[in-house]
Write a structure and sequence with these properties.
mainly alpha, two-stranded antiparallel ribbon, globular
């Protein structure tokens, strides 16, 4: 670069950012926000980063982490993901002195987990799932004092229960499996070894002893679900599919759906019961082949004419910039939908959640829901916005209980 990149004391050092040599920080590798990686600083040619890495190299000669400045900085790093998506690991290792001592737990010197903050935090962890796909294990072990004592009661009560998230037991919600946002499915909760999800599934199992589904709260939630849910063993989805089955008597679990295919030929969907159920569903449901979801999406399509199956949703994105929900048709459909829908970016679910938020101002996406918990102590439900929404939710899912005010009065 016309001599601009020559490092005075190190003529054989050819790095992309010479100014970082001898800046007081030991660099092995640099990561730019554009995803590029720069190397060669901690080398003999560059004087071990202008001397910045001499002490580190002497102390941890076999520690080859990308960013040595994180070793011994007071925070335990086992592995972490940069904003660019790159995974950096190897810090919490013997070669790196267990992250320069940051990951050493005085009471459990043989416990080498990637995030010590979860030890003794009051929650029993078998496995921890973090944003970006990081999975941390090894907490509920003898070396870690059974998660710093947090798992002692769980282990004693359910010695053969090996679920990833013990904290999901006895939380008031019957879980067959837990579906994480990253696509992982955790199962084994509604089993004898786990006390039928710590007792949460006892009522469901009594009502539907032959109903083996991943998400028991969907049974009897007022919406007809397909496949195993719409079966005799599940009471035709807790009664939710009775009306649909009267229209299409061969379109239940195990049926061939000939009556449905004759009525709406060319409509190939995973859940035929969503067609014409009164709610606009996205993707292939909202297509000409499926008669715009059996007519359910006509109003939505009028507002956002380019937001049907195969279109780019430009009109919706203009109306709600920053709202990146999976099902845009739920925005402004008259029902307050929880999670990312009830956010500022999505206009508080297109206005559907304004009344709910006025009652519980901290129960939006990312909020603590402390006001809701104060109003309904002991009410542990998956969708707080269903409480008091004018529709009595079924016998399972924890809504129609005394703790939840009989579904906020909807089932009184």
């Amino acid at each position: 670069d016309g001599g601009d990149c020559v490092v005075g004391d190190y003529p054989d050092c050819h790095v992309d950012y010479p100014r970082l040599i001898n800046d007081g920080i030991c660099h092995n590798r640099l990561f730019h926000s554009n995803g590029q990686t720069y190397e060669g600083y901690n080398t003999e040619e560059c004087g071990w980063d202008g001397g910045d890495c001499v002490e580190f190299n002497d102390k941890y000669p076999a520690c080859a982490v990308d960013m040595p400045q994180y070793v011994g900085n007071g925070v335990c790093y086992g592995s972490f993901i940069l904003d660019t998506g790159q995974l950096l690991d190897g810090y919490n290792s013997e070669e790196c002195g267990w992250d320069g001592g940051d990951c050493v737990i005085d009471d459990y010197p043989d416990c080498h987990v990637d995030n010590t903050g979860f030890i003794g935090d009051g929650i029993c962890h078998n496995t921890v799932f973090l944003a970006g796909g990081l999975i941390l294990e090894g907490y509920n072990t003898e070396e870690c004092g059974w998660d710093g004592g947090d798992c002692a009661e769980f282990n004693e009560k359910y010695p053969a229960c090996t679920v990833d998230m013990p904290q999901a037991l006895e939380n008031g919600v019957c879980e067959g499996s837990i579906h994480l946002v990253n696509g992982l499915i955790l199962d084994g909760y509604n089993t004898e070894e786990c006390g039928w999800d710590g007792g949460d599934c006892t009522e469901f199992n009594t009502l539907y002893p032959n109903c083996k589904v991943d998400r028991p709260p969907l049974v009897g939630d007022g919406k007809c679900d397909h496949d195993k849910y719409n079966s005799e063993g599940c009471g035709w989805d807790g009664g939710d599919c009775i009306e649909f089955n009267s229209k299409y008597p061969d379109c239940h679990s195990g049926g061939n759906c000939a009556s449905f295919n004759d009525t709406i030929p060319g409509c190939k969907v995973a859940n035929p019961s969503l067609i014409g159920d009164g709610k606009c569903d996205h993707d292939v449901y909202n297509s000409v082949e499926c008669d715009w979801d059996g007519g359910d999406c006509i109003k939505f399509n009028k507002k956002y004419p380019d937001c049907h199956s195969g279109a780019d949703c430009a009109s919706f994105n203009t109306a709600f910039p920053g709202c990146t929900v999976k099902y845009p048709s739920l925005i402004g459909d008259g029902f307050c939908t929880h999670f990312d829908y009830n956010s500022k970016e999505c206009g508080w679910d297109g206005g559907d959640c304004i009344e709910f938020n006025s009652k519980y101002p901290d129960c939006y996406s990312g909020g603590s829901c402390a006001s809701f918990s104060a109003a309904f102590p002991g009410c542990k439900v998956m969708f707080p916005s269903l409480i008091g929404n004018g529709v009595c939710n079924g016998e399972v899912g924890g809504y129609n209980t005394e703790e939840c005010g009989w579904d906020g009065g909807d089932c009184a």
